[in-house]
């Protein structure tokens, strides 16, 4: 570690937390050492965000600090884990103290919301890239996976879909309206940690929607060895997304857009979610049913059925098959 690297971690990423689970050994040594409480299991996930690939060049550093942690927290939500620790590796073209101060502010504001402690870090020089390894706790033997969906299960999504995709279009068009709902959904996603935890023991499968509803639901279908029919009319969409679909005459659009970081999950028919709905701060909507017949079918209100076993790869501008 060079002296400049050390001062970046020291100045911007070392905080004293009053909340959360302190590491046995944290930032400042060669490794962090962590005690996993008795009766718990550790859930671990890593995500990298690369400038020009996962976020637009010259993105607001405070929003980026929030987003890089939010997308990792979303993976913990998908397995039902409670966040506890994270490590952060950041590659910077230059050491810009104003940028670093704003980035760390966005990162720690979200970390503190979940009493998450940063236990390690690394900084290097190069094109802007940020990697977070996130760690959460699960009750021993309990977890949500992609593989448990069974024929007859109901399929749900949280909040709305397609909103962040619309926000990306607006960000690309250099929209900076900080009250635009779609732009905020794209720049500052809300990981569904509370919902994921409450689904433990209720949901038969779960995934977070990062690559688009069709791509991510197809991951559940493939892992579970089942198929599904989604009722198009039941998709929870904002007015802005409906307007965008009508303008482009593209009603398949919300199935292909990513970055929503909502949860898509399945629940056996005999599980009652009424109590859960009352406790949650966000809505959940039933959108379809798991079936034995493989593949993802979209049912329109005219009775037309579209097979959608693909996700749209926006980076390469093409549809990729998932099954
Ligand atoms: Mg995920």
Please tell me about this protein's structure:
32% of the residues lie in helices and 26% in strands. With 323 residues, it is of the alpha+beta class. It folds into two domains: 3-139, 60s Ribosomal Protein L30, Chain: A, CATH 3.30.1330; 154-321, PurM-like C-terminal domain (Phosphoribosyl-aminoimidazole Synthetase, Chain A, domain 2, Alpha-Beta Complex). The strands form three sheets. It has a seven-stranded mixed β-sheet with strand order 6-8-5-9-7-10-11, sandwiched between helices. A four-stranded mixed β-sheet has the order 1-4-2-3. The protein is globular and about 65 Å long. Magnesium ion binds at residues 75, 78, 208, 210.
The low-confidence runs, each spanning 5 or more residues with pLDDT under 50, are none
| CATH fold field value of the largest domain | Phosphoribosyl-aminoimidazole Synthetase, Chain A, domain 2
Instruction: Report the principal-axis shape.
Output: globular
As a percent range, the share of strand residues is 25-35%
Number of strands: 13
Helix and strand string, N-terminal first?
Answer: HEHEHEEEHHHEHEHHEHEEEEE
The CATH H-level superfamily of the largest domain is: PurM-like C-terminal domain
**Order of strands, widest sheet:** 6-8-5-9-7-10-11
The ligands bound in this entry are:
magnesium ion
| Mean pLDDT score | 90
Q: What is the terminal separation in angstroms?
A: 45 Å
Which percent range fits the helix content? Answer: 25-40%
What radius of gyration results from the CA coordinates? Answer: 20 Å
Structural class: alpha+beta
- Name of the CATH first level of the largest domain: Alpha Beta
Largest sheet: 7 strands, mixed
CATH structural architecture of the largest domain: Alpha-Beta Complex
